[in-house]
Structures are given as structure tokens and as C-alpha cells.
């Protein structure tokens, strides 16, 4: 089954294209197990597609925060950093949350705000530690 190969090789774009192209083929599949297998692979494909979409949005918030900071739009920067951090927390993407806190810390340092600089750097270090990235934890000391 082509879909299985796409999923095993993590070719998610090809997998989603195939699922959309073939539609509901369950009743055409020869055995009892084949429709179950197809349903599992289809669900996995849609799940991965949804994760990719939310990942793009989450990373876009962090990029918007950096851009706002560069342009001197401080209120927008703070809102975007907070939105990126919250989205990463909700989605369970620890590495994105760690990066967002790290960048927020650098932003608040440039603003001379020691409280929020320290808060975000400690949150970043905790996320990197939980993620298992001890080199980054040491780098941020």
C-alpha cells in the first residue's frame, strides 16, 4: 500500500495528497484488516498534517514577536512572545516553548527589564532541561 510507504518514510505531504485523492476506499479493500489499516494510516496522516499546521502558526508567532521587537513595536512584541509561549505550552512542543522564552528573555534584556529577563531565561532553562538539552542549559547560565 502506497500510503503505508509514505507514512513510514514520513512523506507527509505525499500521504495527505494521496488520502485526499483516493477518498473513502474502505469498502473496496479486499480483507477485513485492510480497511482498519487504511483508517489508522489515514488518521495518522491527518494528525501529522494538523501538527504541522499548528507548528507553523506557533513558529510564526515567535517570528512576529522578533520582527515587532526589531521595529520597536514593544506591545506587539510582548503579545506575540506570550502567544507563542502559550501556544507551545498547549501543544506540548517543549523545544518551541524553550526557544520562545529564550528570545523573550533577550528582548526584555534589550528593554532593560531585569525581572522579565530573568523570568524568561529561567523558564527557558527549565524547558531545555526537561527536553534533555543539557548543553543549552549550561550555555544559558
Structural description of this entry:
The longest helix has 38 residues, at 33-70. The protein has 141 residues and is an all-alpha fold. The model has no long low-confidence stretch (mean pLDDT 86). The chain has helices at 2-8, 12-22, 33-70, 74-91, 94-110, 114-131, 134-139. The chain is built from 7 helices and no strands. 82% of the residues lie in helices and 0% in strands.
Class from secondary-structure proportions? mainly alpha
Tell me, what's the shape? elongated
Helix content: over 70%
End-to-end Cα distance, whole Å, is 50 Å
Ranges where pLDDT stays below 50 over 5 or more residues in a row are none
Give the overall pLDDT as a whole number. Answer: 86
Tag the structure with descriptive keywords.
141 residues, mainly alpha, elongated
Structure in a nutshell:
The chain is an all-alpha fold and 141 residues long. α1 packs antiparallel against α2 and α2 crosses α3.
Strand and helix layout:
Blueprint: H1 2-8, H2 12-22, H3 33-70, H4 74-91, H5 94-110, H6 114-131, H7 134-139
Helix pairs in contact: 1-2, 2-3, 3-4, 3-5, 4-5, 5-6
